[in-house]
């Protein structure tokens, strides 16, 4: 069978396997085959009208996973890459994902169509999946959109169920009752600042 063989280098065989798993999850291409030997991955891409496109996707994902850390250990990943790799229960607002990372004391910032962060790609994908799971649980709660975002961010950042975090946010006067539902007591940015003060209490178990 005709095709293209690429050899990619990694820091460890575990990293090579992780990359191959992400790649095959993202790219559905008949005959795509990878073999890990030590810290190298040999990837065979069968020839077709999509060959060039697949090669570009392989190289893009490789660059993003292997992107060099600067002095502040920051990397950039395309938002679309994260959304493609993550197994989401429901759609998530990317700014909420940024909020979760920052609330956990790590760094993330939306830069154009990319996320600049101190996390590696696997961590970011898992966090997106966690946020999506929580978001789905809150969809039927009587919340305004901004209140729902604050609750899901608080729940994902703390690892606590949204029901528990709902009680905490109400008692901390971050959410208030309005009619039959709940809304923010103060605007979202200020709510996030106050959330930093109450979140540690939710980690005491």
Verbal overview:
The chain has 205 residues and is an alpha+beta fold. Among the domains are: 66 residues, Gyrase A, domain 2; 66 residues, no CATH class. Helices cover 50% and strands 19% of the residues. The protein has a 3-stranded antiparallel β-sheet, with helices on one face. Strands 4-6-5 form a 3-stranded antiparallel β-sheet. A two-stranded antiparallel ribbon has the order 7-8. A hairpin with a 2-residue loop joins strand 2 and strand 3. Helix 4 packs across helix 6, helix 6 packs across helix 7 and helix 6 packs parallel to helix 8. The longest helix is centred in the middle third of the chain and has 18 residues. It is elongated. The termini are far apart.
Radius of gyration: 20 Å
Ranges where pLDDT stays below 50 over 5 or more residues in a row are 68-72, 201-205
| Lateral arrangement of strands in the main beta sheet | 1-3-2
The CATH homologous superfamily of the domain at 1-66 is named: Transcriptional coactivator/pterin dehydratase
Taken in chain order, the helices and strands follow as EHEEHEHHEEHHHEEH
Going by CATH, the architecture of the domain at 1-66 would be 2-Layer Sandwich
Largest sheet, strands/sense/barrel: 3 strands, antiparallel
Task: Name the helicity range.
Answer: 40-55%
CATH topology value of the domain at 1-66: Gyrase A, domain 2
Q: Using DSSP, what is the number of strands?
A: 8
Overall SS class: alpha+beta
Q: What is the CATH level 1 assignment of the domain at 1-66?
A: Alpha Beta
Mean pLDDT: 87
End-to-end distance, in Å? 57 Å
Shape descriptor reads elongated
Q: How large a portion of the residues is in β-strands, by DSSP E?
A: 15-25%
DSSP summary: helix tally:
8
């Amino acid at each position: 069978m005709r095709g293209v063989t690429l050899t990619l280098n990694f820091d460890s065989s575990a990293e090579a396997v992780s990359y191959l798993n992400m790649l095959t999850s993202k790219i559905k291409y008949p005959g795509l085959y990878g073999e890990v030997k030590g810290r190298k991955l040999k990837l065979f891409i069968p020839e077709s009208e999509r060959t060039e496109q697949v090669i570009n996707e392989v190289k893009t994902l490789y660059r993003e996973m292997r992107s060099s850390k600067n002095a502040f250990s920051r990397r950039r990943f395309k938002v679309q890459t994260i959304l493609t790799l993550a197994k989401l229960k429901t759609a998530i607002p990317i700014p909420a994902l940024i909020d979760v990372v920052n609330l956990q004391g790590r760094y993330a910032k939306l830069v154009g169509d990319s996320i600049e962060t101190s996390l590696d790609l696997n961590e970011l994908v898992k966090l997106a999946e966690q946020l999506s799971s929580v978001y789905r649980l809150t969809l039927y709660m009587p919340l305004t959109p901004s209140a729902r975002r604050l609750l899901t961010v608080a729940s994902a950042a703390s690892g606590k169920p949204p029901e528990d975090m709902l009680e905490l946010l109400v008692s901390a006067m971050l959410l208030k009752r309005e009619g039959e539902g709940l809304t923010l007591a103060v605007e979202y940015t200020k709510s996030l600042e106050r959330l930093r003060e109450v979140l540690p209490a939710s980690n005491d178990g």
